[in-house]
Amino acid sequence: MAAALTVLLIGCLLQTALCGQFKTIIPQTIKVLSGSCVTIPCSFDVEDQYISRIDGTCRAMWKSEEQTVVFDSSNPQSSAIQGELKGDLTRRDCSTTLNNMRPEHSKEYLLRVQCDHFKHSFRDQKLHISVTDDPPTPTLTPSTLKVEEGTSVSLKCSAPAPCLSHPPALTWTSSLVHIQESLQENLDRTKVQTSVLTFTASRLHHGKIISCTAVYNKQDGSSQSVSTSLTADVSLSSQFIILPQTIEVLSGSCVTIPCSFDVEDTYKSNVDETCRAVWKNDQGTVVFNSRDPQTTGHLTGHLTGNLTNRDCTTTLNNMRPENSMKYFFGLECDNGLKYDFKTGQMDISVKDDPPTPTLTPSTLKVEEGTSVSLKCSAPAPCLSHPPALTWTSSLGHIRGSLQENLDRTKVQTSVLTFTASRLHHGKIISCTAVYNKQDGSSQSVSSSLTADVSYSPKNTTVSVCPSGPVPENSRVTLTCSSTANPAVRSYTWYRADGGQETFIGAGHVLNIKASRDIGPFFCGAENTIGSGRSNISQIDVHSPEQYLGPYSGLLLLAGAAVSLCVNVFFTVYVVILCKARKSVKPKEEDRTYMSLERRDLSPEYDVIGHTPK
């Protein structure tokens, strides 16, 4: 009996767990920058008996703590807070974007779903939106950096991204080595923009301030930025070498290896003019000797640094794919000092194709009127032949420079600045890097993005069908057209009554009856960015007399005359026909005939008479 009750109880609990219930899954709180949008991740569930009622008639409504509806997905542009339903209610996805948030919108909100056969307010789960005048400070992980020289370091910068159409752009003070960006999702489905910076700690980093800046672009085109930083604490060793971890080189080109070293104090005086730089591969084979740079080993080149200043920077020429391997630096002096810096090995990778330039940001989604800065960067491993950067077209101002990373490798940069316009929407903006090799040939590679510029409706026009004069009371089709991004959400029609505008209809196409009373009119188009309107138009309505023109009187007289002639002709014809029939007598052999005479006996039918036998 106890076992049966246990099974029954478990069954009831399982049934309760499996059956749907009224609930929403939304974040508890979201912080938003004033003037920006907020995308609310939202899903809901209902009791099983109501699932079939969640259909295409449903709309999402967001209510404030005062129970005031601030957003209605059935009329998003006329809501107190304009926005857009991003989710599909039939899949119980109520994710919504609210635009242009202001500090006065800081309050609690709840979801209401209303359909033709269902309505429910989810009061048990509420979302608190906090709208602030300042953007949230990005977070650095770890918050401090204290490492030994040679340690591989990864720093992560994170910034909330409440407005998915305008996520923050994250930039570091300088490119230490590798940067990887991504938009990640928290457990409550809110988004966060992240950027991970990786590098190998060296004494050059000690005491350096490493900062990450988050730039938030608002919906009105303005922006705000905020930074967070840390100071690197790198413990040093007395004997070291500083080299890049890896360098990518184009086959047939040179590579300049930035290199610096130090030795223990006991041997510092031995680093003199008799010293030479020796580069060896990971097998210990000498591939370059600065004392005989053009013939010794497998590679030719020249020492560009000064060894007495602990600068071992070297250029190796005409690199080939078979030269792809690890290398280390060795110091050899005539006074007996000889040392191989095996702990600091560098990986040279020789490629047949040049490295693809990097565009920052990698995507471009802005509103019209926003100031845009696009940065194109391409590695410059061969300083005597740095890449030449060109843009597809000159959209604005271009500024180029050769910059140095913290590992002292070089990068060629070109910054293109312009003001976004609807004319840029859908345009492919590309940056091409041309690498000239040492044999005189060249190779090029490009990187591109497609501009997504949102703008309010433009070139709004009205077409009338049929065109030209139309008869009064005939049907006329009016069509409103406009270009916009995002697409036009609603079209409205107005009659221009002097200084007043009277609403006469809605929709892309409007069918009306032609009337002299309609007067001049125009149409308006609206999307999430703004609105536009057409010029004033007017239908040329004519009466029938106007269609007949100056000959209308003659045509009417001619019509009357033709009608009279037809009537006279028909009357004469009937009279002649009747007389002709009366003059015909029936023959005796005819047994029956149809009497044409009127009889009082049968007003409804003719009488059939029989001849006597």
Topology (elements, then pairings):
Elements lengths: L1 H17 L4 E3 L3 E5 L4 E3 L2 E3 L13 E6 L4 E4 L10 E3 L10 E3 L8 E8 L4 E14 L6 E3 L3 E4 L3 E9 L8 E4 L5 E8 L5 E10 L8 E9 L5 E13 L4 E3 L3 E5 L4 E3 L2 E3 L13 E6 L4 E4 L11 E3 L10 E3 L8 E8 L5 E14 L6 E3 L3 E4 L3 E9 L8 E4 L5 E8 L5 E10 L8 E9 L5 E24 L4 E2 L3 E11 L4 E8 L2 E7 L2 E5 L7 E6 L4 E3 L7 E2 L1 H5 L3 H31 L31
Explained architecture:
With 613 residues, the chain is mainly beta. Strands 30, 32, 35, 36, 38 and 41 form a 6-stranded mixed β-sheet that branches. Strands 2-10-9-5-6 form a 5-stranded mixed β-sheet, with no helix packed on it. The chain has a 5-stranded mixed β-sheet with strand order 20-28-27-23-24, with no helix packed on it. The longest helix is centred in the C-terminal third of the chain and has 31 residues, at 552-582.
Determine the fraction of residues in helical runs and give it as a percent range.
under 10%
Which shape, going by the Cα principal axes? elongated
Count of alpha/pi helices: 3
Cα(first) to Cα(last) distance is 113 Å
Q: pLDDT average, as an integer?
A: 84
| Derived structural class | mainly beta
Can you give keywords for this protein?
613 residues, mainly beta, six-stranded mixed β-sheet, five-stranded mixed β-sheet, 44 strands, 46% strand, elongated, disordered C terminus
Describe what is shown at a glance.
With 613 residues, the protein is mostly beta strands. 9% of the residues lie in helices and 46% in strands. The model is unreliable at 1-18 and 584-613 (pLDDT under 50).
